[in-house]
Specification:
- The complex is a heterotrimer of chains A (about 290), B (about 900) and C (about 375).
- Chain A is of the alpha+beta class and about 290 residues long.
- Chain A is built from seven helices and 13 strands.
- Chain A has helices at about 15-25, 125, 155, 180-185, 190-195, 205-220, 265-290, and strands at about 5-10, 50-60, 65-70, 90-95, 95-100, 110-115, 135, 140-145, 165, 170-175, 200-205, 225-230, 240-245.
- With about 900 residues, chain B is α/β, with parallel strands linked by helices.
- Chain B is built from 25 helices and 28 strands.
- In chain B, a hairpin with a 4-residue loop joins β12 and β13 (about 425-430).
- Chain B is globular.
- Chain C contains 14 helices and two strands.
- Chain C has a two-stranded antiparallel sheet.
- Helices cover about 70% and strands about 0% of the residues of chain C.
- By secondary structure, chain C is mainly alpha-helical.
- Chain C has helices spanning about 1-10, 55-80, 90-110, 130-155, 165-175, 175-200, 205, 210-235, 240-265, 270-275, 280-300, 305-340, 340-350, 355-360; strands at about 35, 40.
- In chain C, α2 (about 55-80) crosses α12.
- Classes of the chains: A alpha+beta (about 290), B alpha/beta (about 900), C mainly alpha (about 375).
- Chains in contact: A-B, A-C, B-C.
- The complex binds ligand MGD (2 copies), iron/sulfur cluster (5 copies) and molybdenum atom.
């Protein structure tokens, strides 16, 4: 049995309850108190002490424009590109600069609650030299904190930038898929807290079925930009046990378009070692031979 | 709503997924807009124009729900021929006295069938302050009443409400909406169309608002406009309809029902008035009792209430102890407290669970006023900003005479109690843990304070001390809490719900209350909360079989969950969900209906609640009765065909087709003759501080609005070029109001660590600001510094040819806690809406400039590593420990891992205090 | 300044758990957006993946391990194909140098661990798909073999009395087989670090997946040979002997140069910039010119004897060794920088293969 998350970003209201519930349940400290300027996201990224992270993406496209005469700001100040489509544009009407002001009624403010993907083929797990990272009985990729020795190799081996070393502890941390709660038959804290069920926790086959149906429904409603990220895709990381329904390109959410399992390069690498070993040895042997003669 | 009511918003999202259209009208594109189907930008304070525009659209295109409007509203009522409206008077209504800034309501009255009309109307209109506003149609308690209003069933008489409405709103055209609100016509029309299409027999729309409507000098009238719209569309008293106030603090509804307001007694009974010389119960009843409608029962409620408060000291002979109630002799609303305090007229103050050092309007003024107090008690869970008034910015503590008592309070999980939510649903909560140290519940504090006072005064023979001696102040101690001496709240619940004086057994409901002293009830609308078997229905947690039992699995009203006043009724005025003949308007929207033959029909929950009968003794008996999915809000056996008795009293005055039983006339009021001090119809006025000249009428701002500039509370002049921008303040999901409950929590503080202003890119460019820069906001109250978030979610507006920039300011920061910042409310003026005295925090003016303010912020932000926050502990000394340092993240995970050693290598390092295993 | 240096030389992870973006341009003006389609190409320009915490212990280990591996391989090759008598001194130097390297390497690695006391957890498992795990065993076995063979050398050198029991044990257990094994292990040790890097998500390393192992091995050969050559030069070896070592270096340097050229050509532009421009470009240029081209030319045009020849015989291995070090620093640091660049990362993961939303929707009840 494998459990996981289906995070449907079209239901997310950006309340961050998941982020707080995770920190509270897992008793994680705050990361610091700084305004980032990144919309309403001030925790910035997943990390050793932030295992759920809600991303905010302002895609403010507009349809309606109201022409109005106004002292035109310097072009450099309002996007040298002349403004985003439908946003702010300088139009030369009757020889005088006028500002078109649009309304964000067609705007989208995307919110997405990110988490460890608990990949089928997990880069972190495969990389871990101590065996600290295991796949547990719930199908989750789990770091055993008593094993981890802080080698840090899992960190660059995660194609999603999830796992991180905690600076004052030295070990690697990430979402445990609430291993402790699952043991007690409880749903993970984040999913439990989510008021809109944007985060669905459950048995993966079931979740995938629901997710596919959901995409079909959304398309039926004309929301054709919806798609599933992390299932039904040909990637070397395999299906993600925490997968997402997105409505914009993955890059906007800080996700790779096509994640690649770092270890898929290992075979090639060993081969390169072998070949280069032979070649360099041969070259060296030859040069030794030549000289000795 | 997604921002401030995220848990309730889940139902909105569910509805959206089922096909509902969500429309969001807001100056800013918020998390709600992001999840809505349609977003309309608006300039703050112009909702009357927006809603008026929709009303006009509906009236002009005949899209209103005709049968509903004709039968269930006062559309057909004829109004005094002398009435003149703002169209003719440049924005004023008839009867305005510029000297007192008040209206005489004489010409706002209905034409009635008999001759009492003029006298009654004129008398009411004179010099009433809103504190003494009364239900209309009242007459002497002696049993007379005015005749019923005259009607024009064709709705064509120029003096009928419908025609008045039509002409009043005719200037609120889509063009006007665009000019005043800045909302593009196309967007506005789409909103109007969507709303109209989604209303009628088969469909209903709900209108939700919160303080985006209320916090304006025209706030009450905005809500009125919403009510008119919903009445026209037939969206009141029907499932899925309504004008829903999304309430604020967790039980702010409860604190309105059992009010913390100076001019109300529990259950919306008026406070006796000194100016009207209501020294005897009879005087009080004469003034407040309604001859017609349900309020006719008011004497039973006030007598039962007096019985609850004064017990044996309330007898028929001593006027039920009425003399013990205070009589209002003036305006004691919120702002007045601080004006008086500032003048040194108010000597002592209890601050219990409020932090107006941040949340209060013109907080600086309020905090300064506190420095004049002789004594002050602050009961809070942290040493919050308001408790720091004696060492605020630039204050020498040695010059402050105030004696300050800090009392540590128990938080919600540390005490029993109840919440009343937006839906009027009372939900009980039990104490989970003991409060730390000397922290105690509110009940404990008030109860023991009262007991000590009674002990102090028990031998006093002075007349003025009688109140203290006679008040019923005995509560049993909660079993198991003998050590803390915590009172047993179940007794309070019983007193609120009402009991039989003789047996001390619970009454079944407010229909059982009597005016002969045999019943006691602390708050009549909550009557029945304690069930006849003594169980507390607010604590009920049953899933809801109602819909299923009716073979309609989609329908559920959760009537087994909590207790919704009145009478566990989930939808007020639900008689309106059926047509005048008692049949549901449509199968899809049926809720309660008339069942002519009770034997023939299916079992219904209506029967189950028959105990909560509302039958008026005088209601003619029929074989049929009202049934449905909800507790019918109507006399259960009053047939739809019952005619109104022209001279009948109470419910007799209503016909079987008059759903609005609390209204004197039994119908919804499109036009309000009495009860509002600033006009019978909503009219657009600009905010007190506005950079825009009122494009709708000559009158610039609300004429009944009395706020004046005063030292320390200077107003920015309207249209002042020095303050060209509009500022609106609001909340973020991540924080709670003054931040006292969120800025002390690291997990919430990191989510929104700093005060910021949201500004649009054009304003940013004009001011030379980049995202994240420091900026200073300037008003006549002073300066405020914050960072800026430059965002396309805000947009400049074209208002009547003028470019208006709106600045968004969340107001959660102050000088204490983990994250700190300037107090936004130092910028907001104290002002009073004329009906309910609310401030205008949603719309004021300011200038914006680049850079920080001259004086650097006095407070140093805390460092997260070494914060130990104090609370609890020695009396008066707050010292509850909250360690904000780094927590060993893995402690509990390790423990769990150990629990199952078979699966993984054994764990050695667990140890430490893990969290209790419970969820 | 002290703080700066101290900062440079810390082995701890960043003290700031997560860098917050300093005030950044508002999203609507952000440069990280493809204008034409109103598409976002990153999340506020923030890194998608996390860079490793590796600093000096790691690149130093890569260098020292490379030298040890290279020296081992060369020593074994000399043993196998060289002139036993004549090359005895090379073998001897090779064995001691490998030993020195093998003594330092584990220390560096343990220093790098954020929980050094748990270093032995590395030996709990062997995971073939984890080059770090494989490397642990390579290092361990190398250590044993190198130690053994070096011990034999000490016996041969008479440092341990020939007849003693330890000497007997050593002579019995260290033989041609262990020597060949050490050589093979040396090859592995010199090259596996390339796999270790390329088996991460770091764009530069990932893109250079088949370049890094040979590059590191070639560098291991050049630096290994240089280390022996330096040792020999210092103990006054003759020109001919040094020249034999030079030949090995030159072959390796040629291999390095061609691999670097191939690698740079193969990289996607968004990634390549980390090797050709900016400070990492400079570092690479320095490593190549100072550590490869310059010694190569010096050796080519060095006379057979005389002061100049002596200077070259000391200078050129020093340059090669420095170059090898700089190369490791450049590869590690440029890689880390590329990891922080979302554009570089996305360039490595962009694909045409993603099903369009429409395609996904068309097939809702596809089996798993
Ligand atoms: N997370 C969180 N939830 C809360 C609270 C909290 O502090 N934090 N506080 C609770 C309390 S006490 C209350 S009273 C409620 C308040 O709940 P809300 O009323 O939802 O709260 P606000 O954010 O103050 O204001 C709502 C919106 O009104 C908009 N607005 C401003 N002026 C106008 C206007 O003229 N017209 C229109 N249509 N909109 C306007 C603002 O832009 C803002 O988005 O929330 C409660 N819930
Ligand atoms: N500019 C601007 N100003 C506003 C508003 C706005 O929209 N804009 N909104 C207004 C509104 S709607 C509101 S409701 C007010 C809110 O303003 P306040 O009521 O002043 O703010 P809170 O932070 O809710 O204050 C509650 C206090 O109670 C304490 N507390 C919590 N639990 C308990 C308890 O169990 N017992 C006791 N004794 N204390 C407890 C908390 O620590 C906190 O100090 O702000 C108003 N001010
Ligand atoms: S997302 Fe990263 S950390 Fe999570 S399982 Fe996959 S590779 Fe590991
Ligand atoms: S840091 Fe810990 S979890 Fe990550 S790879 Fe190293 S040992 Fe494994
Ligand atoms: S599953 Fe648990 S650990 Fe993972 S993000 Fe959710 S709450 Fe945090
Ligand atoms: S709790 Fe749910 S709705 Fe709220 S931010 Fe997280 S995923 Fe979104
Ligand atoms: S804080 Fe409480 S009242 Fe407010 S949304 Fe959350 S659950 Fe509801
Ligand atoms: Mo509120």
């Amino acid at each position: 049995m494998a459990n996981g998350f289906f995070t449907d970003t079209t239901l997310c209201i950006g309340c961050k309850a998941c982020e707080v519930a995770c920190k509270q349940w897992n008793q994680l400290p705050a990361d610091g108190y700084e305004l980032t300027g990144m919309s309403y996201d001030n925790t910035a990224a997943l990390g050793a002490t932030t295992w759920r992270h809600v991303a905010f993406i302002e895609k403010m496209e507009t349809k309606t424009k109201l022409p109005m005469a106004t002292p035109a700001p310097k072009p450099s100040q309002v996007g040298a590109d002349g403004g985003e489509p439908g946003r702010l544009a300088f139009l030369n009407m009757d020889g005088r600069a006028s500002l078109q002001i649009g309304f964000p009624e067609a705007g989208r403010w995307l919110m997405m609650s990110d988490v460890c993907k608990h990949c089928t083929n997990a880069g972190c797990l495969q990389a871990c030299p101590t065996g600290a990272i295991i796949r547990n009985e719930f199908g989750a990729v789990y770091i055993q904190p008593d094993i981890c020795n802080g080698c840090g190799y899992c960190v660059p081996s995660c194609p999603f930038g999830v796992v991180a070393l905690q600076h004052d502890d030295g070990r690697a941390f990430k979402c445990t898929l609430c291993y402790d709660r699952q043991k007690d038959g409880l749903e993970p804290a984040c999913a439990k807290a989510c008021p809109t069920d944007s985060i669905l926790f459950g048995e993966l086959d079931d979740l995938k079925m629901r997710a596919r149906q959901r995409v079909a429904d959304l398309h039926g409603r004309g929301e054709t930009e919806a798609y599933l990220y992390g299932v039904d895709e040909e990637t070397s990381v395999g299906d993600l046990n925490a997968f997402f329904l997105l409505t914009a390109e993955p890059e906007a959410y800080g996700l790779p378009q096509k994640p690649i399992l770092p270890q898929s390069r290992v075979g090639r690498g060993y081969l390169a070692c072998l070949v280069s070993g032979i070649v360099l040895s041969a070259m060296t042997a030859l040069s030794l031979r030549r000289k000795s003669r | 709503m997604a921002e401030c009511h995220p848990v309730a918003y889940r139902f909105v999202m569910e509805a959206r997924e089922k096909g509902a259209k969500i429309i969001h009208v807001d100056p800013r594109f918020t998390r709600t807009s992001a999840t809505a189907s349609l977003y309309a930008p608006i300039r703050t304070g112009t909702d009357i124009v927006f809603l008026g525009g929709i009303i006009n659209y509906i009236l002009q295109n005949e899209l209103y729900f005709k049968d509903y409007v004709l039968n269930y509203t006062n559309a057909a009522f004829l109004v005094n021929q002398a009435y003149k409206g703002p169209d003719e008077l440049g924005g004023l209504f008839d009867g305005y006295d510029p000297k007192t800034q008040t209206y005489n309501h004489a010409t706002w009255q209905y034409e009635v069938a008999d001759a009492h009309k003029n006298g009654a109307g004129a008398q009411q209109g004179q010099g009433q302050s809103q504190a003494e506003a009364k239900p209309d149609s009242q007459a002497a308690h002696s049993g007379q009443r005015k005749g019923p209003p005259l009607r024009d069933e064709t709705l064509s008489d120029p003096h009928c409400v419908f025609q008045l409405l039509k002409s009043h709103f005719s200037r609120y055209t889509p063009e006007m909406v665009e000019r005043v609100c800045g909302t593009p016509q196309a967007v506005f029309l789409q909103v109007a169309k969507t709303l109209a299409e989604n209303s009628g027999r088969d469909r209903t729309s709900a209108l939700c608002y919160a303080v985006g409507f209320t916090q304006h000098s025209t706030g009450v009238q905005m809500i009125r406009a919403a009510a008119i719209l919903q009445l026209l569309l037939g969206n009141i008293g029907r499932p899925g309809g309504g004008v829903l106030a999304l309430r604020g603090h967790a039980t702010i509804q409860g604190s309105t029902d059992i009010p913390t307001l100076y001019n109300l007694l529990p259950g919306y009974l008026q406070m006796p008035s000194e100016s009207q010389k209501q020294y005897k119960l009879q005087d009080y009843l004469e003034a407040n009792y309604s001859a017609t409608g349900w309020w006719h029962n008011m004497p039973k409620y006030i007598v039962s209430f007096l019985k609850a408060w004064y017990g044996p000291h309330a007898t028929k002979d001593n006027d039920w102890g009425f003399h013990n109630l205070p009589k209002i002799n003036g305006d004691y609303s919120y702002n007045q407290i601080f004006y008086r305090m500032n003048e040194g007229k108010l000597k002592g103050l209890f601050v219990m669970g409020e932090n107006f050092g941040v949340g209060g309007l013109n907080a600086r003024y309020e905090v300064k006023a506190m420095q004049k107090l002789d004594w002050c008690v602050v009961r809070d869970i942290y040493p919050v900003e308001v408790a720091d008034f004696w060492k605020a910015e630039g204050v020498d503590p040695r010059t402050i005479p105030t004696e300050l008592f800090l009392m540590p309070a128990a938080v919600v999980a540390e005490k029993d109690g109840s919440y009343t939510n937006t839906q009027r649903m009372v939900q009980w909560h039990d104490k989970a843990v003991d409060p730390p140290g000397d922290a105690r519940s509110e009940t404990w504090f008030i109860y023991h304070l009262g007991r000590r006072l009674q002990a102090l005064y028990q031998d006093s023979q002075l007349e003025r001390d009688r109140v203290i001696r006679q008040v019923q102040w005995e509560l049993p101690i909660k079993p198991g809490e003998e050590e803390l001496q915590e009172p047993d709240l179940s007794q309070v619940a019983l007193e609120i719900s009402g009991y039989n004086v003789a047996t001390h057994g619970p009454v079944a409901g407010f229909a059982d209350l009597k005016d002969d002293g045999s019943t006691a009830c602390g708050c009549w609308i909550y009557s029945g909360m304690v069930a006849p078997d003594g169980s507390n229905r607010a604590a009920y947690r049953q899933g809801d079989p109602v819909g299923v039992a009716l073979g309609d699995p989609d329908f559920t009203n959760h009537s087994g969950w909590g207790f919704a006043w009145p009478a566990n009724r989930r939808l007020l005025y639900n008689r309106a969900s059926a047509d005048p003949a008692g049949r549901p308007w449509s199968e899809r929207k049926k809720l309660v209906w008339w069942q002519p033959d009770p034997q023939g029909g299916q079992a219904s929950p209506g029967e189950e609640v028959a105990g909560e009968h509302h039958g008026d003794a005088t209601t003619p008996q029929h074989a049929g009765k009202w049934v449905g999915y909800d507790v019918p809000d109507f006399p259960l056996q009053k047939a739809p065909s019952t005619p109104a008795a022209p001279q009948g009293l109470g419910m007799e005055a209503h016909s079987g087709a008059d759903p609005f039983i609390m209204m004197a006339d039994g119908v919804g009021q499109l036009f309000v003759p009495t009860g509002l001090v600033d006009g019978p119809l909503p009219t657009h006025y600009e905010a007190l501080e506005s950079p825009v000249a009122n494009p709708v009428y000559r009158q610039q701002s609300n004429p009944a609005q009395k706020t004046k500039s005063r030292p320390g509370n200077e107003l920015n002049p309207a249209l002042s070029p020095d303050y060209p921008h509009v500022v609106t303040t609001y909340r973020l999901t991540e924080h709670h109001t003054s931040g006292a409950m969120s800025r002390w929590v690291p997990w919430l503080s990191e989510l929104q660590p700093e005060l910021f202003a949201e500004i649009n890119p054009v304003l940013a460019a004009e001011t030379g600001l980049e995202n994240g820069d420091w900026a200073t906001l300037v008003t006549s109250r002073g300066e405020l510094e914050m960072r800026v978030l430059v965002t396309g979610r805000l947009t400049p507006l074209n208002i009547n040819g003028q470019v208006i920039h709106q600045i968004g300011l969340p107001y959660h920061w102050g000088s204490k806690g983990i994250v700190t910042g300037d107090v936004v409310n130092n910028m907001v003026p104290l002002s009073e809406e004329s009906n309910v005295h609310i401030h205008e925090a949603k719309s004021f003016t300011a200038n914006l400039r680049k850079g920080r303010r001259a004086v650097p912020a006095p407070s140093e932000p805390f460092s997260s590593d070494n914060v130990v926050v104090a609370r609890g502990g020695e009396a008066g000394q707050l010292n509850r420990e909250v360690h904000l340092g780094t927590v060993d993240v893995m402690t509990h995970v390790n423990q769990v891992a150990t629990a199952e050693p078979g699966n993984r290598p054994a764990v050695q390092e667990a140890a430490g205090q893990g969290r209790a295993a419970s969820d | 300044m002290l703080k700066l240096i101290a900062g440079l030389w810390t082995t701890r992870t960043d003290p700031a758990p997560k860098e917050k973006a300093a005030p950044i341009p508002p999203p609507e003006r952000g440069g990280k957006r493809r204008k034409t389609e109103n598409q976002f190409t990153s999340y506020y320009g923030r890194p998608v993946i996390k860079k490793p915490h590796w600093v000096w212990p790691i690149w130093t280990y890569f260098w020292v391990g490379g030298i040890a591996g290279g020296a081992s391989a060369i020593t074994t090759l000399v043993e196998l194909v060289g002139d036993k008598e004549r090359d005895q001194s090379i073998i001897r130097a090779g064995r001691y140098i490998s030993l020195a390297g093998m003594l330092v390497s584990p220390v560096l690695l343990v220093i790098d661990l954020q929980r050094p006391e748990r270093f032995h957890h590395m030996l709990r498992v062997l995971k073939l798909r984890s080059p770090l795990s494989v490397g642990t065993y390579i290092l361990t076995s190398s250590g044993l073999l190198t130690g053994l063979n070096a011990a034999r050398q000490t016996v041969e050198d008479g440092l341990i009395p020939a007849g003693s029991l330890p000497a007997k044990v050593v002579l019995l257990s260290a033989n041609r087989v262990t020597s060949v094994a050490q050589g093979l292990d040396g090859l592995a040790l010199g090259s596996y670090t390339g796999v270790l890097l390329s088996a991460t998500a770091v764009p530069l390393w990932a893109e250079a997946d088949i370049v890094l192992p040979p590059l590191f091995l070639a560098s291991a050969f050049s630096t290994g040979a240089a280390a022996i050559s330096l040792a020999r030069a210092l103990s006054g070896a003759g020109h001919e002997e040094l020249q034999r070592l030079d030949r090995i270096e030159q072959g390796a340097i040629l291999a390095e140069l061609s691999l670097l050229a191939y690698g740079a050509a193969k990289l996607k532009p968004a990634v390549r910039q980390y090797t050709t421009s900016g400070k990492y470009g400079l570092l690479f240029a320095l490593a190549i010119s100072l550590g490869q081209i310059l010694p190569f030319l010096l050796q080519l045009f060095s006379p057979k004897r005389g002061l100049y020849s002596r200077v070259v015989s000391l200078l050129s291995p020093l340059l090669v060794l420095t170059g090898g070090y700089l190369l490791r620093v450049a590869v590690v640091e440029a890689g880390k920088a590329s990891a922080e660049d979302p554009d570089a990362y996305h360039a490595t993961t962009r694909c045409r293969g993603r099903p369009t939303p429409e395609e996904q929707a068309a097939n809702p009840d596809r089996a798993n």
